[in-house]
Amino acid sequence: MTKSRVKKEEDKKKNNLKSLPVLSTLKEGLHLIGNPPLSVICIMRKVHFPAIKLTSEPNTHKYFTQRYGLFSKYDEGIQLDDESWYSVTHEIIAQHIAYICRNCSIVMDGFAGVGGNVIQFAKYCKVLAVDIDKSKLEMLENNANIYGVLSNIKCIVDDFLNIPSHNCRVDVVFASPPWGGPGYLNSRVFDISEMAPKLQEILRACEKIAENTILYLPKNLDPLDIYRIIMETHLKYKKIEFQVISKASAVS
Ligand code: ADP
Q: Domain 3-245, what fold?
């Protein structure tokens, strides 16, 4: 390739980058959004991690004090395992994310866990709940039943990366993937390359399934990392929107 051609290619890349409305400065608070096609919405939650060793006895750890924040119907028989105590989405945040999808017919949650998000989606639409761990989905079914939304949910035990694009139309894929363990808290900026599965693979899978993706990621990630991944992986997304939310700012 000639030098001028290389330069042209580089300029083209730069212009493409500029056309993406990436917010490089994040402010605490809620940015309400529209519902454009081919979008990625990154909801970045405040970082929570277990400060003490968890046991299967919830009474002994601090998360138990947050039980009604995780599930307002906790006392009606909600089931969580150790991992879920600290990874499940707080109900008010899950309500906010579900409200974004209120006009959807079908949403897929690729990392459904015990159902914090799935239950809230299911108040508005049908939900395909995917998780690699069968026991999580059993707890999800129990929890969804307590909220009276089980009939809107179909559980799929599988690796999200293996999920074929369905014949039915999925409006939005929601992904709250594993962040790679509490080690990420030692760094000021979340190291996205530590994620397993890789965010590239997750986004590729999301893109096959639906035009819109919502990611739920730690607040200390660098938005430009998302933007680079989308450019480098040649994904079709045309708009990236970031919302930084906390329990205080999540309103529905
Ligand atoms: P976090 O780091 O947000 O706490 P978790 O480690 O709790 O994330 O993972 C969230 C959920 O994703 C868990 O229920 C786990 O079983 C599920 N999960 C992990 N990997 C996959 C995968 N490849 N496909 C589907 N579900 C997965």
A: Rossmann fold (3.40.50)
Atom 8, ligand 1: residue with shortest CA distance: 178
Domain-by-domain residue ranges, the chain?
A: 3-245
Distance 133 CA to ligand 1 centre (A): 8
pTM, 2 dp: 0.79
How many Å lie between the centroid of ligand 1 and the Cα of residue 134? Answer: 12
Span 9-33, pLDDT tens digits:
666 555 544 443 333 233 333 333 3
Torsion of CA 233, 239, 244, 249, to 10 degrees: -150
For residues 71 and 144, the answer to whether their CB atoms sit within 8 Å is no
Tens of pLDDT along 156-201?
999 999 998 766 779 999 999 987 655 556 677 788 888 889 999 9
- Tell me the CA–centroid distance for residue 149 and ligand 1, in Å: 22
